[in-house]
Amino acid sequence: MKVETFTLERWMSTWETVAKFDIAESGIHPLTTRELLDFLPADDRQAVEDKLLDLRLGYTEARGTARLRADLAATYNGVDPDQILVTTGAIEANYLLVNSLLEAGDHVVSVFPAYQQLYSVAKAIGCDISLWNIVEDGGNFRFDLDELERLVKPETKMILINTPNNPTGALLSDDELKRIYRLAESVDAWVLSDEAYRWLDIPGGEPLAAPMRDLGPRAISVGTFSKPFGLPGLRIGWLAATEEIVKACWSARDYVSLAPGGLSDFLASVALREREKIMKRNQDIMRQNLDYAEGWFAKHSELASWNVPRGGLLALMKYNVDLPSDRVANTLAQDYSVMLAPGSTFGYEGNLRIGIGQAPDIFAEGLERTAQCLERLTLQQTAGVGSR
Fold first, then answer.
1. Structure-derived torsion over alpha carbons of residues 318, 321, 322, 328, reported in degrees to the nearest 10
2. Is 9 a residue whose pLDDT tops 90?
């Protein structure tokens, strides 16, 4: 199987260890191990530290530890630990599901734009892909369910969704998820819901819908500790599905990563049990960055505008200089040490992806440097310098 180049990841890998002000960051500002353990009640802290330090560094349970799977299962309705598979990030969960459930020639509907993996792996298998385009409506992005109904066929095998959406910040409601599930059920299709931004409600905004897995046996939810917990370095994700699907993905994973890391599994379990405190910390970061962004976009309306995300951490920034997004993004990274991902990697030229999960001081400085860059590019273009 030959998969097309993952353009966003290739661009990110070029700059993420070089640029100092990463405001394209797709997750919440990462925690240190000390910060994670600081969330523990004082009476538990020492016992957990001792257990962590005494943890033998051998192979762990291939499905994920029983404790972590039980804790994850409890975040859904009617799901038991045997319906959870712990994976190496959400990216492995999506990869295993698509490879285990689909074959060449199968018809698949995928939301677009989205994290490229969702549709590129199915495409590489040889599936027939119909893209379900998120629509821009009055400066905001939304899912058009009438269009989805037109795209789904009697032979459709899977509907791939991502809510809150990366990169637009669009959101599906509980009623919309139920409508999607009924549609999938009517043609015996699976719904794979990438829920990487679960628990990341926008401060003061509408609450996120319940996970897709709660709706029935044809619903699959994928989650991660990277985005909402600020723990991307653990490389821990999971999928919630029927036991039959979990077994199929587990068998496929025997040839890929075999098992999650024991240290990561342990720390993920600590994070999940302390998630209310972690989510409060996240809300504080998001609120500060949203407030700063609101002032910045009002001040620099001649340079750029954005759609405020309805959920999650991501949005598209539309800039007003007439240059390709990869050129603008590369100039920002090289000359201003700022990362804003080119919209072209999502099929949205003329835009940059911005994230509101970064540390507030880095976020603020990144936006100020972005203004300097866009002002310079605007002046150069007005003067006819370097435009093409």
1. -80
2. no
3-state secondary structure at position 155: coil
Alpha-carbon distance 302 to 322, whole Å?
Answer: 13
- pLDDT of 140 reads 87
387 has a pLDDT exceeding 60: no
Rounded CA-CA distance 173/170 in Å is 10
Phi-psi bin for 337: left (phi > 0), alpha (psi -120 to 50), beta? left
Homologous superfamily of domain range 7-26+276-382? Aspartate Aminotransferase, domain 1 (3.90.1150.10)
- Architecture of 43-273 per CATH? 3-Layer(aba) Sandwich (3.40)
Sign of the alpha-carbon dihedral angle for 340, 301, 358, 213 = negative
Domain boundaries, the chain: 7-26+276-382, 43-273
Please work out, in degrees rounded to the nearest 5, the angle formed at the alpha carbon of residue 258 by the alpha carbons of 254 and 259: 140
Instruction: Look at residue 388 and tell me whether its pLDDT is greater than 50.
Output: no
Please give the Cα distance from 213 to 225 (Å, whole number): 18
Please say whether the beta carbons of 142 and 87 come within 8 A: no
Higher pLDDT, 30 or 116: 30
% of the chain exceeding 90 in pLDDT: 89
Instruction: Please list, in sequence order, all residues whose beta carbon lies within 8 angstroms of the beta carbon of residue 156, skipping any fewer than 6 positions away.
Output: 107, 108, 109, 184, 187, 189
pLDDT tens-digit map of 107-134 = 999 999 998 899 999 999 999 999 999 9
The token pair that represents 22 in the structure block: 């990463």
How far is the C-alpha of 196 from the C-alpha of 110, rounded, in Å?
16
Q: Are 236 and 260 in contact (CB under 8 A)?
A: yes
pTM: 0.93
